Known about the structure:
The protein is an all-alpha fold. Helices cover 73% and strands 0% of the residues. The chain contains 20 helices and no strands. The chain has helices spanning 2-9, 13-29, 31-56, 64-71, 94-103, 108-131, 150-175, 179-187, 192-196, 202-229, 236-255, 258-268, 270-278, 287-303, 314-335, 337-345, 349-360, 366-387, 393-415, 417-424. The radius of gyration is 38 Å and the shape is extended.
Amino acid sequence: MLRSVFYFANLPYSRRRNKLSAYLTIVRTRPGILIFFIGLNCLHLGVIGYLLRRNSLAVSPSSPSKIILQLNPVKKDIPVTAKFNWSNVESADYKRYIANLRASGCPEETVRDIIIADVDKLFAARRQTASVTPEKDLKYWEPEPDDGNEISGREKWKQEQTTENEKRLLLKELLGVDLNSERRKLAGEEDMVEKRLRFLPTEKRQQVRLLLEKFNEQEQIVREKALESGSVNDTENPLELKRIHAARQAELAKVLSPREIELFELWTSDAAIATRHSLAGLEEPSEQEFLAIYKLRKRFDEEFNTEVSPIKDAERREKLEKATTEMENQIEAEFGEQRYAQYLRGQDRDYRQLAEISRRFHLPREAAGRVYDLRKAAENQTIKIQADESLPAEKRKVLIQEIRQNAGESVQELLGEEASQLYRRTESAGWLE
Length: 433
């Protein structure tokens, strides 16, 4: 019967309409047939009901269905527990709130998410209440109060920093986690501080983070004062920054071993970060190459740290330029001609953009280098043609266009269609136009 129904439902509309019309004609002319089919369907329903009722009753011990029932018995007399109510868990006391969440079986990650969201909401309401000041109704043609107001903007930033610090301290006490780190995890962002401190045990990592934040805040206060007073280059500002840097190192030495201090510098110091940045053009940079440049840069920074010792006179500026040239010569001598050429292209913003596109599209590392070399060759050919006065201007134009067209085809072959289209949309690809 069901097969007939499915068969009928799957027929084209025109055939279903013709068959239905024929059935209605038969029913009108021969009503006995209708009564017969109704009776037959009632009989089918009765048989189905009987079978279902029989299967629900107890059967003999030898019956397979009895074995199934015994293996999966229906549980009776299950004790009824009290209905779960959120009011039994939530509490104005955060420590009790956390304890209740954990006691209810809530996963630790979910506990953190709930508490962080609740603390954010609490501080948002507090900040909104504190910032409410009576103002006149603003017209659409009138500037907003903070528009172009640098002082007001800094004050607002300070208030926000104070609020964030209060939240971080509270959540550190309650959950033992860093607020910024947790937010980056939720947003799927990479925490660079966490990444660079992975060589440390978790407990030391948290201690170091707090120390860095403490001294970064002190540095920011010094810079804010200098900005407000207009004395950015005064001698007091560099001396204060030096004092803060020395105090930070002293505090770190209390937490970290000498080897950990060394690794900390290799991961986080300005010289180390600048060195990693400068190696972008090298294919498979080695630890030896990194350390060679790092030592040169560290020595250079110790002598010419322009942040804490601003360059004020022509003599010191000339000394800085000479030291920069000497450092570059030492790097070239360390690397050799071919490796130094790779090092130099890593300082080129256009190459770095190519390298990023190659990385994004999972292309071989050498793809960016080959496109970069292709560009240099095309530019050199273009310069030669433009300088050749024996060629008519129109001829030079045609030759240059051919160079760019051939180069464009080679770029697409090296990068692929998607990556080459993205590259063409960047400023670096102007040489192809």
